[in-house]
């Protein structure tokens, strides 16, 4: 077993206590050192923290609702409904943590995380949209210049082929295709 895999297993057992700030100094330092070098364990920790925040928000909302004065007569619901709701929340959080803990390499292709939803993926999509919008504006300006009609058509063709996945590329395709 590789040292990193062994360290991951050790840290995995400490993640819940680490996320809650309940670890003693030595295990917390060991976990922090490992998390600084292991993307997989950082992802697990982030997912666990999001799950814990969600659970805290649900409990806070429930407590606030219980503390608020009732304006209508309270209709009693069977206790099993609350227990079932709590069990569903715990199950959902547990499954989310388990799903993230298995790592992307073991997931079927349809369940792989979409790289476009990462910060870098979103930034790349924004830059691509911006570039296509600039090219579209340039093509529009060219189309208004006497004698530059062919250059404008070439710009629209390029935009339609290279940026077909953007709104500007789709608009360029509509302009160059006969109606």
Question: How is this fold's topology laid out?
Answer:
Blueprint: H1 3-20, H2 25-37, H3 39-67, H4 79-101, H5 119-144, H6 149-162, H7 167-176
Helix pairs in contact: 1-2, 1-3, 3-4, 5-6, 5-7, 6-7
Verbal overview:
α1 (3-20) crosses α2 (25-37) and α1 packs parallel to α3 (39-67). 74% of the residues lie in helices and 0% in strands. The protein contains 7 helices and no strands. The longest helix has 29 residues, at 39-67. The chain folds into 2 domains: 1-66 and 87-103, no CATH class; 117-176. The protein has 179 residues and is an all-alpha fold.
What characteristics describe this protein?
179 residues, mainly alpha, 2 domains, 7 helices, 74% helix
Compact summary:
This protein is mostly helical.
Would you list the SSEs in sequence order as H and E?
HHHHHHH
What is the global morphology? elongated
Q: How does the helix and strand content classify structurally?
A: mainly alpha
* Topology, number of strands: 0
Task: Quickly count the helices.
Answer: 7
Provide the helix percentage. over 70%
Main beta sheet strand tally, sense and closure: none
Low-confidence stretches: none
């Amino acid at each position: 077993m590789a040292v990193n895999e062994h360290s991951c297993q050790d840290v995995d057992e400490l993640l819940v206590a680490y996320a809650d700030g309940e670890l003693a100094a030595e295990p917390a330092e060991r976990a922090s050192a490992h998390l600084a070098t292991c993307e997989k364990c950082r992802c697990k920790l982030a997912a666990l923290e999001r799950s814990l925040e969600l659970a805290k928000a649900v409990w806070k909302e429930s407590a606030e609702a219980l503390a608020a004065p009732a304006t209508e007569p309270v209709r009693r619901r069977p206790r099993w409904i609350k227990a079932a709701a709590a069990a569903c929340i715990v199950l959902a959080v547990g499954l989310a943590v388990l799903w993230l803990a298995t790592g992307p390499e073991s997931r079927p292709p349809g369940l792989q995380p979409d790289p476009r939803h990462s910060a870098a993926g979103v930034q790349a999509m924004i830059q691509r949209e911006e570039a296509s919008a600039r090219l579209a504006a340039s093509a529009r300006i060219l189309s208004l210049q006497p004698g530059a009609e062919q250059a404008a058509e070439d710009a629209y063709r390029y935009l339609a082929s290279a940026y077909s996945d953007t709104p500007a590329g789709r608009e360029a395709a509509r302009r160059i295709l006969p109606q």
